[in-house]
Amino acid sequence: MRRTYVAIAxxxxxxxxxxxxxxxxYGFKWVTSIYADADGIGLKRPEGVACGEKRVxxxxxxxxxxxxxxxxxxxxSAERVFPLGKSSPTVLQFNSKGDLYFLDGxxxxxxxxxxxxxxxxxxxxxxxxxxxxIVPKSFRIDGDDNIYILDIFSQQVIILDPDWQLxxxxxLPKDRGFFSDLAIDRQGKIYVVDSVEAVVHVAxxxxxxxxxxxxxxxxxxxxxxxxxxxxxxxxYLVDQNxxxxxxxxxxxxxxxxxLGLGWNKSGLYYPSQICISAGGNVFIADRNNNRVQMFxxxxx
Amino acid sequence: xRPVRFRSFWVFLGAAAWLVVFAGTQANxxxxxxxxxxxxxxxxxxxxxxxxEILKRPFLHTPVAKGDCAGCHNPHTSKRAMxxxxxxxxxxxxxxxxxxxxxxxxxxxxxxxGKCFSCHxxxxxxxxxxxxxxxxxxxxxxxxxxGQKLATNKFEHDPVTDSxxxxxxPHASKxxxxxxxxxxxxxxxxxxxxxxxxxxxxxxxxxxxxxRCTACHNPHGSNTAGILFDNVHEPVAERACGECHTKSTxxxxxxxxxxxxxxxxGCHYETVVDALNKSMVHWPMLDDRGCVNCHAPHxxxxxxxxxxxxxxxCSECHTDTVDRQKRSRTEHPPIAEGACGECHxxxxxxxxxxxxxxxxxxxxxxxHEWQRHSSHPIGEEIVDPRxxxxxxxxxxxHRTHGTEYEHFIYFRTKDELCVQCHTNLRR
Lengths: 300, 427
Known about the structure:
A: 300 residues, mainly beta, Neuraminidase, 4-stranded antiparallel β-sheet, globular, B: 427 residues, two-stranded antiparallel ribbon, 19 helices
């Protein structure tokens, strides 16, 4: 009888430990903040950020431009500025060739620049039903250069191959508040976040519909406007109105909040897009602090 | 003869014993508690003489009518006011169990709170169901805004004048929201004959008997003919349903001719173009629902055909922001009054937060004119010591929608706030 109790206690401890470990792992350490371009012109209301191993590109929304930076450790240096005319860049991504894709909040179109800065034009999906209008609220590019567009007009996620040919669409859940962002994990799962309901839905690779991934997380986040996922499958919800991050474990459980409202380093003030580099560096477009902040996530 | 006499004796004795026991029992039944008076009511009324009048009322609560004051009150002691035997709601529930059964789709708050005596007199009343007022007057005591509206209506809805309970269950409804005794449209069709020729004609042959009547009509009456809500969308006023909907003879007569914003753009072209030419658009305008995310397409009580008050409409999505004001120690009038449009442009803006002025300072200056000549240094020249890329503005110290601290500052005290920048003054 006693053996049974010991076994149950051991099992419970075994099941509980990863949760404690999971919660403890996600400590954020501030590395540096990006404030300006090479000429000292300050960022203004930057809403977007995309990052790779050695470079990070910022959608400097208020200045209507993109700014590319190189980084090595905590050293960040501005490399190039891409003026965008009247465009108002919000969400930003680049593909494996370094081509830059940004969502123009003014024209509600995804605009493409070559890595050199040459403007390719708007992303026009091929083989789409001609009558279908698209209003992209956000988009992502996966490691194979497939493009995922969150289309709020037709309430669907549009998946395009690297040549912009329509692969398929997945309808968004009908019971909704407002879908703001999406994220793709390494297994090809698509996550969408409903900012109003504070709920994440998921579509596994090949699925034709989304299923609810979390319950309402209003206790965790006020208004999760942006979303990304790390290599371990942990979701990072950017709480725009709550100026912080909410973390969600791969099983949908809350891992608690990180960072908080502030103007000093590591404080956030109405943050926007977030990205995680392959090396685990986290970049957050700290919109109303007019900067992008870089963090490492410690495993302590 | 002798055996007969003997038997009679025992019969007599038995009858006498039965009479003694029976009489004793009857005496106890009348006065279980050995009260001085012959009934509990008499005993109570000896002191509570106001009940002499109450007992004359035409409608008496059953325990009162039976003289069973102890049905609800403990005559000796209780932890509760009025010597009640249990909490007010629970004590009612002990007899009126059926009121609390089943799952309700909507419930009257005071009923859930057990405040039965807000509407009922527990002893007796001049009105049926022991209501403290008859008809709509009782409801209007709390729902006074509605009462004022009813008093000024040019066009009345008869059931409202008669009694609210014609349409509402004052306790809870198992069938509908808003305490309606039945869901729409079947509730309305109890009185309104949908097959009537005039009904069909006025509704342009659209099968409105399958729709929600309150999409157009104000069930409490209004100042517009047909008790339409007071602000009517022009095509509705002109009964030009076909401007937006497919023909009434089509297979899906309520289907819209276009989706979202595209439908409205046909008439509201300038508004749409103006909105879409700004850097930041309010994104819900552009989804499949478009304008009806915020506007009622047929008729509304609110200006601009809003679905509800500004605060109600905005808080459908921005609950956290609207609730922040409710928790705020200091009230910020435009927000507390639900005037979101005082500071924000609801369709689009060239400025963050969709504010309706070029800068946040200018938004505040619309009301706080004094800050133009005397204030802590703010403006584009004044760099925030905490972040060299940010300049000082009102919102550097105040969270406009409210905080848990006075004057909606971000920190517990003014000192704590000031030393965020004036670090040399930190203790």
